[in-house]
Design brief:
This is ABC transporter permease. This protein is mostly helical. It has one domain (17-283). Helices cover 71% and strands 0% of the residues. The chain has helices at 16-36, 39-66, 77-94, 101-108, 111-114, 121-139, 142-151, 162-186, 188-191, 195-209, 220-229, 237-243, 249-283. Helix 6 (121-139) crosses helix 8 (162-186). The longest helix is centred in the last third of the chain and has 35 residues, at 249-283.
Length: 286
């Protein structure tokens, strides 16, 4: 019988960048392989997202048909169609809710094992989440997109830089979403039960991220405030606006730049909160 190699990869001081990248890649690959085992959940989730895509698409097309000029919020019918169907696919990629792993480990005490590992806890959760996002992109993003192209007339981007910018925007959305989910789960360090904050996050995320309706339907001052003062629009609204080319190219790049700023701020907050939480665990003798 072949023996498993259970050695922990060590980062050599002579080649820190390569070894760090290898460790990060191994963690991301583990997250991808983990979600490969949930075949039935993947099929059920794709089917559910597709069904709700039909409901949302018909509602927004009705709004467009009844709007003056047929362009509510500056979107035409084709742009709204793409907004809905790509949004349904991105919902599982960005994963706005449903993640309670850190809170569960804090409540059970298993989080103490995480502190003994040679990888920072923020990285140890971020890397597998990127692997999860890649799995969702391959297996849960495509079915709603195919349904939208088969049954409707979606908008196809025409600018050469739109698709690469959209890809960067999606990556930043995943990182930002993971940052907020980590912070919400980390409240369990102080509350011992994070179900309350998680419920509030679940209620706010879909509404403020642009899942239920495009945030451009709101008054301009409110939409701008949400974009600048909160990271929520960067989770869905920004990638979708980039893809449907709602704005000019400089504005598209500016929105993605704002996403990048929020991603850096959220990861820094995660590291700060984790450091404070570790001090609290030491003070409690944990």
């Amino acid at each position: 019988m072949d023996r498993l190699d259970a050695r922990v990869p060590q980062i050599s001081p002579r080649r820190p960048f390569r070894d760090t990248a290898a460790t990060f890649g191994a963690l991301a690959w583990s997250g991808f392989r983990r979600y490969l085992t949930y075949r039935q959940a993947t099929i059920a989730g794709s089917f559910t997202n597709t069904v709700f895509g039909f409901l949302r698409c018909y509602v927004l097309l009705a709004v467009a048909a009844g709007a003056v000029g047929g362009r509510p919020g500056g979107y035409d019918a084709a742009q709204l169609t793409t907004f809905v169907w790509v949004g349904q696919g991105l919902l599982s990629v960005v994963a706005l809710w449903g993640w309670t792993e850190l809170a569960d480990r804090i409540r059970s005490g298993d989080v103490t094992a995480d502190l003994l590992r040679p990888v920072h806890p923020v990285i140890s959760y971020l890397a597998p989440d990127l692997g999860r996002a890649l799995h969702a992109l391959l297996f849960r993003f495509v079915p709603p997109l195919v349904a939208g192209f088969v049954f409707f007339d979606p908008y196809v981007p025409g600018r050469p830089f739109t698709v690469p910018l959209f890809a960067v925007s999606v990556l930043l959305a995943v990182i930002g979403s993971m940052g907020v989910r980590f912070l919400v789960n980390a409240t369990a360090y102080w509350l011992h039960d994070a179900r309350g904050p998680i419920v509030l996050w679940t209620l706010a995320a879909g509404l403020l991220a642009g899942l239920y309706f495009p945030l451009r339907f709101l008054p301009d001052w409110l939409a701008v405030t949400l974009w600048v003062a909160t990271p929520f629009p960067g989770f869905l609204q920004t990638p979708l606006d980039v893809l449907v080319e709602r704005d000019s190219t400089p504005v598209q790049a500016g929105l993605v730049g704002l996403q990048a700023c929020w991603a850096v701020v959220l990861l820094a907050l995660c590291a700060l909160v984790q450091r404070r939480a570790e001090r609290r665990l030491v003070a409690q003798g944990g």
